[in-house]
Amino acid sequence: MDESSKDPAEALLRTYSAGGGINYLDAAATLPSRPAIDAACVELLSLLFPGFHGEPVVHPGDLPALTRSRIRSLHARLHPEMCKSLARKGGNGAVEPDADRILSSFFAQLASVREMLWTDIDAAYEGDPASTSFEEVILAYPSLEAIAIQRMAHILYQANLPLIPRMMTEWAHGRTGIDIHPGAKIGSYFFIDHGTGVVIGETCVIGSHVKLYHGVTLGARSFQKDEEGHIKKGGKRHPEVEDYVTIYPNSTVLGGETVIGARSTIGGNVFLTQSVPPDSLVAYDGKPFQVMHKRTRPLRESDAPVER
């Protein structure tokens, strides 16, 4: 029978009934909603930076009521999604009390997150000569948005909430090009300049006053496998970056045992799988390039004029 004559709906329906863990016909009742989590990320940024995201604050006197309204709205949006997420962990207990407990703790820690983000704003302003104001950092720097979402997602990750923390950081990843796992532990005064292509793994530990440039990867070196050849989950897989370290563009640092010592500088295009002591300078040792005037360089065969 010609493949083009088959009913595509019937073909798809057959795959829906197959096994494999990707068929959630009742997904609305069993999985967190991506649109709901995306909308929650927008509301959370509005809560952290009132007047910069979402509806403007017309008068300072409106801020208390607006803040409480946003918290109520976020609670109503996140509670059912957390219940669905927690239900996936199994167990016989009701998930609503756990969701309430996690949300209560989460909201209680947002003030500390905001205080931490002010150090990140300061690091961006002081670390980028192109920055003209704190307002510019909040409005226009993708790294701050990615870091803000990650710091909030990290709270939920530590509460062992499935799915949602990763959904939050992937929302930020899609908007900024910066991929930070919610499990990563990141200190104060953190700045990612430009940011596109940065990857920070789950078990990475980053100290304070660390600066990364675009294209930096803090990743895993290799994965252990069990007797059946399946990758073993968990374990320390990603490097540690100590205080006052700078890593320049397109450098890769891999391995759970790799430690970049304090005050070290990793130059651009470095591939590093071993620890370096404090106060180190690591530079790419490639072939030296040549600089010459275009008119005096040797003529190559491909440069010869073509006869017509």
Structural write-up:
By secondary structure, the protein is α/β, with parallel strands linked by helices. It has two domains: 26-177, serine acetyltransferase, domain 1 (Orthogonal Bundle), CATH 1.10.3130; 197-308, UDP N-Acetylglucosamine Acyltransferase, domain 1 (3 Solenoid). Helix content is 40%, strand content 10%. The protein is built from eight helices and 14 strands. It has helices at residues 8-16, 27-30, 34-48, 63-87, 96-127, 134-140, 142-158, 164-176, and strands at residues 179-180, 185-186, 191-193, 199-200, 205-206, 211-213, 217-219, 240-241, 246-247, 252-254, 259-260, 265-266, 271-272, 281-282. The strands form three sheets. A five-stranded parallel sheet has the order 1-4-7-10-13. The longest helix has 32 residues, at 96-127. It is globular. The model has no long low-confidence stretch (mean pLDDT 89).
Jot down its keywords:
308 residues, alpha/beta, serine acetyltransferase, domain 1, UDP N-Acetylglucosamine Acyltransferase, domain 1, 2 domains, five-stranded parallel sheet, 40% helix, globular
How is this structure best summarized?
The chain has about 300 residues and is of the alpha/beta class. It has helices spanning about 10-15, 25-30, 35-50, 65-85, 95-125, 135-140, 140-160, 165-175; strands at about 180, 185, 190-195, 200, 205, 210-215, 215-220, 240, 245, 250-255, 260, 265, 270, 280.
Task: Itemize the secondary structure elements and their pairings.
Elements (H helix, E strand, L loop, with lengths): L7 H9 L10 H4 L3 H15 L14 H25 L8 H32 L6 H7 L1 H17 L5 H13 L2 E2 L4 E2 L4 E3 L5 E2 L4 E2 L4 E3 L3 E3 L20 E2 L4 E2 L4 E3 L4 E2 L4 E2 L4 E2 L8 E2 L26
Helix pairs in contact: 3-4, 3-8, 4-5, 5-7, 7-8
